[in-house]
Amino acid sequence: MADVVKIVNNGLAITSALLSGESVVSPKWVGWGVGTTAPVVGNTSLETASAEARTVGTQTQQTTTTTDDTYQVVALITCTGAGKAITEVAVFNHLTNVVMYLRATFSAINVSVGDSIQFTIKSVLDNP
């Protein structure tokens, strides 16, 4: 479970663009890293991205509190380089022409070459 999660400012812009019908790619590419600074709304990239390429996730609509109030992305990333302690994850709207939607940090998950982590990332829309 993530310690700190933020939909960043650019993520809010992606959301409003999608709602207004603009031609925007929905955020479903997931990347990981070893940065430990808590996310803030101004983040535009992972603090310390790892070498593995972003993985396209499966996006679905889920129910957390109210019917269909949650956007969920599930992605599996496999360690292909040297072992590392993964401490951050982010969701982007593209593989290469990238805008960050969300960033999270968490306690280290140690991976070796060939190890994988399946991330389930949920963005719950809430009425305050």
Properties at a glance:
mainly beta, globular, 3-stranded antiparallel sheet, 128 residues
The DSSP helix count reads 1
Total number of domains: 1
Give the strand order of the largest sheet, numbering strands 1, 2, ... along the chain.
Answer: 1-7-6-2-3
What is the makeup of the main sheet? 5 strands, antiparallel
Low-confidence stretches: none
Rounded radius of gyration (Å) = 14 Å
Summary, kept brief:
With 128 residues, this protein is mainly beta. 9% of the residues lie in helices and 43% in strands. The relative contact order is 0.29.
Task: Tell me what you see in this structure.
The protein has one helix at about 10-20, and strands at about 5, 30-35, 55, 60, 70-80, 85-90, 100-110, 115-125. By secondary structure, the chain is mainly β. About 30% of the residues are buried. The model has no long low-confidence stretch (mean pLDDT about 95). Strands 1-7-6-2-3 form a five-stranded antiparallel β-sheet. Strands 4-5-8 form a three-stranded antiparallel β-sheet, with no helix packed on it.
Helix and strand topology:
Elements: E1 4-7, H1 9-19, E2 29-33, E3 55-56, E4 58-62, E5 70-78, E6 84-92, E7 100-111, E8 116-124
Antiparallel strand pairs: 1-7, 2-3, 2-6, 4-5, 5-8, 6-7
